[in-house]
Amino acid sequence: MSASSKKIVLKKLNSHNTIWHPESTLVFKSQKDRLVIGRYVDDELIPLDDDALTLCETWKFKPDESLFEADEDHEKVSEEEQENDESEEEPTTKEPLPKEPTSKEPISKEPTSKEPLPKEPITKEIKSSSKVSENTKSIHSLTNEFTTQVLLEFDLLVEENTSLKSQLEENSASFSELQKKYDDIKKKFDTMKSLFN
Fold first, then answer.
1. Rounded to a whole number, what is the largest CA-CA distance in the chain?
2. 70 and 39 within one domain
3. Compositional bias (Polar residues) spans (predicted)?
């Protein structure tokens, strides 16, 4: 039976003034805010960790994202403290003079580590520019094909128009001849009719 088809039963956790899900051991922020803040294991509240996130995905609960930001801030602070500790330790290591070449090695490594960083955007720009040039080529070829097709159709229409004009002129000429003959015959008929009256 999958986690989504099970009935979810939440229980009060009086010791922490909140609720929890005993099957998954996930603890929620409060009864109103159904955001996971950690796990309740062996009567201890364990803060939000990878296991809790996996359980959140399994049971389709939402983790409290504000805790991620707090963890990131905490990690940044701890990293800064480590850097400060390292910077405080550096003066003691710089006292012996023979160790200067070793301190130069990290300096030479830093530019090499910084060099690939500008190269990545350049390659991305090259890739994007190649995509743009491919797109431009395809658009250009499509435009050329469309233009040639339109020109062919236009030429056909001009030819057809010319032939229709010549047919119209011929028909007009034959109509005027027939009209003239009709008028002559009608005249003769009218004169003969007047003779019999």
1. 149
2. no
3. 129-142
